[in-house]
């Protein structure tokens, strides 16, 4: 009788989801699925609201990445007004996004993934968390906490200490950076760069310690997608969108945000609220499954693979190491961790450049205009990957339609395929070891999915793992 192993919900990722592993009669893996089970109709809730309210309103889609929604909503608003924000506003927005990527990556790597990577995927589940890490490797835990706090302080210096910093608005930003905070951040900046460099130096050792996971955590050819700067450097906020293939060749032309629907289709699945975007060009517009060539990945690994260079000295040196070791386009999703560490370094270095720029925050901060276009698309790189906000408005600037594509959605097909690979490598029959279940979760966690965002619902996950037979009988339950 086929059996179903259910991991519900996935722990140490943000939101609510479950993973099902179905075994055939011989106990071999037959099918794997990643389901997202919460939903709140946020797009409908936005209809009739002013485009000026959208950055603050969409920030409420997620308790984890409000900054990414504020910045992307403001950019969609820029497009509706038909203006480009003044240079000072653009620099401050970039600064906030760097702070957001730094703090979010620090959480993902040091708090959520480092326990597995440093203590082992089979280590005692009760200690396989940030507290266990503090006991075993206090130095890495301490530096991770410090890096995250620095990123959070950059955000607070710009947007204030509110949970949803609705500071970026259509046309620019509402306030300048706090000059006292700039002094404090300058004083701490070198320590953060040093910590980031130290963390990167440990990556090779983590890879060497986990060869089976490196091979099984989503190692397959796919497209990669994200923003690139016009000169090919790593980018996170302004620029064109690009697809590359598994060899690093451009797929089609680079394109601006408002043309995304020419290149990206979405397939809905009855099984999950998370839609699966896919690259249209590879399939001529037909819906594709997880094994199909329309699959692409976004986020740290995609951005690093897209970039010709990072654009700052230490991050460029790290990128050269990364490519020397794993090739021009590393394909394994385990390497999201390495790409995240390279991006931490780039963020730390670029924040230093901004903090020491004597022109920072000087000049106008907001371009004023009326409603000049009835549609506006904003795009930005959230820590987890490319985030689109697509607004349609009436002549008074009231929202008539909203479509969002979030990072976790872009990665949905790739995450499904990753679970299948891990299950094939580590699940042998129904008597599944705890470490195998943990690896399935960890494979998803490598993408750092934000399920709050992807379902537009805010929720706290209980920490329980369930293993069930096909008829729903509970075989095992693991609580953390
Ligand atoms: Ni989110």
Strand content: 15-25%
Distance between the termini: 30 Å
Regarding quaternary structure, what we see is single chain
> How would you state the average pLDDT, rounded?
87
Q: Shape, please? A: globular
Helix content: 40-55%
Main features:
15 strands; 16 helices; 42% helix; Cytochrome-c3 Hydrogenase, chain B; alpha+beta; three-stranded antiparallel sheet; 480 residues; three-stranded mixed sheet; 18% strand; binds nickel (II) ion
A few lines on this structure:
This protein is an alpha+beta fold. It has 16 helices and 15 strands. Mean pLDDT is 87; it is low at 455-465.
Your description of this structure?
With 480 residues, the chain is an alpha+beta fold. Helices cover 42% and strands 18% of the residues. It is built from 16 helices and 15 strands. A hairpin with a 5-residue loop joins strand 14 and strand 15. Helix 4 packs across helix 5 and helix 4 (87-119) packs antiparallel against helix 12. Residues 455-465 have low confidence and may be disordered. Bound molecules: nickel (II) ion (NI). Nickel (II) ion is lined by residues 62, 64-65, 450, 452-453.
Layout of helices and strands, plus pairs?
Layout: E1 3-7, E2 17-23, E3 29-36, H1 42-46, H2 54-59, H3 66-81, H4 87-119, H5 130-136, H6 138-159, E4 168-169, E5 172-173, H7 179-201, H8 203-209, H9 211-216, E6 223-228, E7 240-244, E8 264-269, E9 272-279, E10 296-297, H10 300-306, H11 313-326, H12 336-355, E11 375-382, E12 385-393, E13 399-405, H13 407-410, H14 412-426, H15 434-445, H16 451-455, E14 464-468, E15 474-479
Parallel strand pairs: 6-10
Antiparallel strand pairs: 1-2, 2-3, 4-5, 6-7, 8-9, 11-12, 12-13, 14-15
The structure holds nickel (II) ion.
């Amino acid at each position: 009788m086929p059996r179903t192993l259910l991991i519900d919900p996935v722990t140490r990722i943000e939101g609510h989801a479950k993973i099902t592993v179905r075994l055939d009669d011989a106990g071999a893996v037959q099918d794997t699925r990643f389901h997202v089970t919460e939903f709140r109709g946020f797009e409908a809730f936005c209809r009739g609201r002013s485009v000026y309210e959208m950055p603050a309103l969409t920030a409420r889609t997620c308790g984890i990445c409000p900054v990414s929604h504020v910045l992307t909503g403001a950019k969609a608003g820029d497009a509706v007004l038909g203006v480009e924000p003044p240079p000072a506003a653009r620099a401050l927005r970039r600064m906030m996004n760097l702070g957001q990527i730094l703090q979010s990556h620090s959480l993902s790597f040091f708090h959520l993934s480092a326990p597995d990577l440093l203590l082992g995927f089979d280590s005692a589940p009760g200690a396989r968390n940030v507290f266990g890490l503090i006991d075993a490797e206090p130095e890495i835990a301490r530096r991770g906490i410090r890096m995250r706090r620095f990123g959070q302080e950059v955000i607070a210096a710009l947007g204030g200490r509110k949970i949803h910093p609705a500071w970026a608005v259509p046309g620019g930003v509402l306030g300048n950076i706090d000059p006292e905070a700039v002094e404090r951040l300058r004083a701490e900046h070198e320590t953060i760069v040093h910590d980031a460099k130290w963390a990167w130096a440990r990556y090779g050792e983590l890879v060497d310690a986990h060869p089976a996971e490196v091979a099984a955590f989503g190692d397959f050819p796919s497209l990669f997608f994200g923003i690139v700067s016009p000169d090919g450097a790593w980018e996170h906020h302004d620029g064109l969108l690009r697809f590359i293939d598994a060899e690093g060749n451009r797929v089609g032309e680079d394109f601006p945000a408002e043309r995304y629907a020419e290149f990206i289709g979405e397939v809905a699945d009855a099984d999950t609220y998370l839609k699966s975007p896919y690259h249209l060009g590879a399939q001529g517009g037909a819906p594709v499954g997880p094994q199909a060539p329309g699959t692409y990945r976004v986020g740290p690994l995609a951005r690093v693979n897209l970039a010709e260079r990072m654009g700052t000295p230490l991050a460029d040196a790290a990128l050269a190491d990364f490519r020397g070791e794993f090739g021009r386009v590393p394909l394994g999703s385990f390497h999201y961790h390495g790409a995240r560490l390279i991006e931490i370094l780039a963020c730390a270095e670029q924040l230093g450049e901004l903090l020491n720029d004597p022109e920072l925050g000087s000049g106008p901060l907001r371009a004023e205009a009326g409603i000049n276009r009835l549609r506006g698309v904003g795009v930005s790189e959230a820590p987890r990957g490319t985030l689109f906000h697509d607004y349609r408005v009436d002549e008074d600037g009231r929202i008539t339609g909203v479509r969002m594509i979030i990072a976790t959605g872009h990665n949905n097909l790739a995450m499904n395929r990753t679970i299948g690979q891990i299950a094939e490598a580590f699940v042998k029959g129904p008597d599944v070891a705890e470490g195998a279940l943990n690896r399935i979760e960890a494979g998803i966690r490598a993408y750092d999915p934000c399920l709050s965002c992807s379902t537009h619902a805010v929720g706290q996950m209980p920490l329980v793992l369930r293993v069930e037979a096909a008829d729903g009988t509970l075989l095992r339950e693991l609580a953390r």
